[in-house]
Amino acid sequence: MLAVSGNKRQRAARDRMAAAAREYAGLGWPCFPGAHPPVGGDRACSCDRIGCPDPAAHPVSAAWAHQAGVDADVIERWWSERPRANIILPTGRVFDVFDVPAAAGTIALDRIEREDLPVGPVASFGGDRHLFFVATRGAPADEAEWWSCHLDCSPEDVAETPGMRWHCRDSYVVAPPSVLPNGREAAWLRPPSRDPLPDPLRLLGVLSDACEGV
Predict the structure, then answer these.
(1) Is residue 41 helix, strand or coil?
(2) How far is 54 from 190, CA to CA, in rounded Å?
(3) So what's the pLDDT on residue 160?
(4) Domain extent at residue 201
């Protein structure tokens, strides 16, 4: 009986990734499978790279930007093939994400509550960072209209911006309930809903002030 219960718990842990991916797709949020911590052994990431620079926090394929989507059948196949895969959400399509140190995120959430400011979904990334989901700036047809921002981050250069990061076009975030090395997880502090996402510029000042205070 104990063995059966243990198997059920392991199966439920695997199934929750597929279930979460389906929920994101239902919101219209494209997703893609990500690397994950392997079971057993001394490696931190399931990928083949020795000394992976971003263990369990990157897509399983370099084609993620082209392949990520909301097709239910495709998502079902992906997580049937990789049931432990973490969940990658591309940014700059449906939403952008402000990525700040956890201490700054806590300060910002306190101020947001006190001042009754608009806020959308907020996630904790392993307890180290807070992810604030906001309306995307999109990708204007006229590139001259694109507002260049030094906070824009591609996944490869986030280590160079330890304060606030703005994930927009050509970037991504790792979504709950993804599992990270050393037993950490991504988890929702404010789960997503179908409410409109807040204007990024409304939150930019609040988060900038919070980052300066830590």
Answers:
(1) coil
(2) 25
(3) 58
(4) 1-213
